Amino acid sequence: MNQTKSSKPFKRLLLTGAGGGLGQVLRDRIKPWADVVRVSDIKDLGPAREGEEVMLCDLADRGAVMKLVEGVDAILHFGGISVEDRFEPIMQANILGLHYLYEAVHKHGVKRVVYASSSHTVGFYKTTDIVDADMPLRPDGFYGLSKCFGEALSRYYYDRFGTETVCIRIGSSFPEPRNPRMMVTYLDYDDLVELLRCSLFTPRVGHTITFGTSDNATRWWDNRKASHLGYVPKSSSSRFAANFPDTAERPAPDDLPTIYQGGPFVTAGPMYE
Ligand code: 15L
Questions:
Q1: Domains annotated on the chain, with CATH
Q2: What's the gap in Å between 160 CA and the centre of ligand 1?
Q3: Is the dihedral of CA 233, 235, 240, 246 positive or negative?
Q4: pLDDT tens-digit series, residues 129-168
C-alpha cells in the first residue's frame, strides 16, 4: 500500500491573530511544523492557503473559542489587542478571551501554548535597570496589565493541570527599529521564528517566561532563566545603527518615555471615553 506518512512534528497547529502584524509574518513561516496550520483572527483572512484551514473567531465568544481549539496539538497565541487601548476592548479580547482559550486548552487536552506576551508587562522599569523573568511586574498600561494576566493565568494552568506555556515578552518585532528605543528592544523576524521553534520543540518547558529580542548591543533584559529553551539570536539591531546617529535630536532626559523601558506606552494610558 502506498501511504504517505507525514514527517511534520504536529498534525494541527493553531495560530491566533494570524491577520495581525506578526501573524502575517508567521503564517507561511510556521508551515514546516504542521500538516495543517489553523489560522484564526477576528478579521477576514482571505482564502485558506495550501496547508491551512481558516477559522474566524472572536476570542470573547466562548463557544467559538471552544471550537477553535478542538483538534489542535499546540497553539501560538498572537490574538487579541496588541497596543494600548481602553480597558473594555482589552478586557474582552485579552482577558476574557484568554480565559476562554485556556478553558478550551484544558478541555481539549492541548499540551503546549506559546503566548505572545510583551515587554510592556515590565515597561515601568527604568532604561538603566536590568530585568529578569522573576522580578516584580511593572506594567505600563492596560495592555501591559492584560499581558500580566496572561502570564499569571498560564502559570495557574501549569500549576493546576501541567499545561505547558512559554510566555514570550516580545520587544519590538518589525522589519527594522523605528526609533532609538527599538535599537534595544528589536526582535528580528528570523529570530522570532527561531524563538517560537525553541518554545514549541524544547522537550520540557513547564511555565517559562522569556524576553524576545535579538542579540542587540544594549540590553535591558536578562534571559538566563529561560536558557533551557536554547534560543540563540542570530541578528542584531547594530546593522541599523547608522539610522540613529548620536548627533540626531534626542528627547529631553526628563521625558518619561525616555526614562522608562516602555517608551511611548508609559504615557499612552489610561484611555477613557
Ligand atoms: C508591543 O507589545 C506591541 O504589540 C508592538 O506593537 C510594539 O509597539 C512593541 O510592543 C514595542 O514596545 O515596541
A1: 10-242+255-267 (3.40.50.720)
A2: 31
A3: positive
A4: 999 999 999 999 999 999 999 999 999 999 999 999 999 9
Which residues partner with 172 through β-bridges? Answer: 186
Residue 246 carries which DSSP code? T
Instruction: Output the CA–CA distances (angstroms, integers) from residue 180 to 68, 145, 244, 260, in the order listed.
Output: 39, 25, 6, 13
pLDDT recorded at residue 4? 61
pTM: 0.96
Are the beta carbons of 196 and 30 closer than 8 angstroms? Answer: yes
For ligand 1, atom 11, which residue shows the shortest CA distance? 172
Pocket test for ligand 1, best of 83, 167, 237, 267 (most atoms within 8 A of CB): 83
> Hey, which of 82, 90, 266, 267 would you mutate to test ligand 1's pocket, going by the most ligand atoms within 8 Å of its Cβ?
82
- Per DSSP (E only), the strands in 4-111 are 10-16, 34-40, 52-54, 74-77
* Model pLDDT for residues 224-251, shown as the tens digit of each residue: 999 999 999 999 999 999 999 877 677 7
Residue 209 contacts by C-beta under 8 Å, 6 or more apart in sequence? Answer: 117, 133, 151, 166, 167, 169, 225, 226
Q: How far apart are CA 142 and CA 155, in angstroms?
A: 20
The response to whether residue 185 sits with its C-beta less than 6 Å from ligand 1 reads: yes
CA atoms within 13 A on the CB side of 180: 12
Q: What percent of the chain has pLDDT over 70?
A: 97
Residues in the chain: 273
Instruction: Please give the backbone phi and psi of residue 67, each rounded to the nearest 5 degrees, phi first.
Output: -70, -40
